[in-house]
Write a structure and sequence with these properties.
single chain, alpha/beta, 6-stranded mixed beta sheet, Rossmann fold, 45% helix, 2 domains
Length: 287
Amino acid sequence: MGGGHAGVPGPWQSASEAVVKVGFERVATEGSFAVHPLELSPGSGRVEAELIAGRIADNGAKGVFFLPSRVSEEACRQDEWFLAGCRRVGLPVVLLDRNLRGVDRPLEYDLVASDHFDGGLRCTEHLLGLGRKNVACVIASPTSTHTDRLAGYLSALQKVSNGYSPRVVRVPEHLDAREAYPWIADELVRIGVDGVICYQDYVAVGVMLELFRRGLNVPRDVAVVGCDDLPIGQSFALGVSSYSYPSEAIARTALRVIANRIAHPNDPLAKVVLAGRLVVRDSTVTG
């Protein structure tokens, strides 16, 4: 079976892809299937993207696990061309972690994902439980991962009776990492937050460094939570609290979903979300 992505990833996208792959690599050691990585070259046109799907089928793959790009509209078009090729040659597809890029985009393929709503909810409840009064949620791309996490954040705020106001920081998509981190930090200072949920651990670390540069203390002045529980969050001098990504559970579930799709191609689309867990470290609590 194959899996892949399209687009030019930044450090956080590369790390997200790695955490998705590691679950499949671990499950593959049990011998039930083989993983063959797929890369769509940046700038690939429609014909090339569709031909890649045909070559995958010719090489004997029974299905495709696919992590959609959130990088840009151009990368999304590549995804769409490749997936159209899969459909044309009869390759079943299971999307991993997010739907194709787009606001409120209808689901066209089976999807197995981390429960990003639960992540946003748990992270927000954690910060509110620590007594934080002005908690922000940072989002970027128009993808289901970000919108679901935002929905969890808003739900947590709605549950409390103290009238907390949402503080949503939307990162302009044209910014690269070197520009995004200081931009986020400036926004957090401007709106006066004392807690923030970042959409990935690399972003959390980058924002923490920028807050330090502005004379703020983490977590005393601003408590910071990331997502995916990546190695950087454990290796950074100040451990990053994070909502973990259930990589093995997603791989096992995706295998069951694609097996069902192969056996029953006309079944309704399946969307399965699997909860991670909140890992608390020094970026939100001391001692």
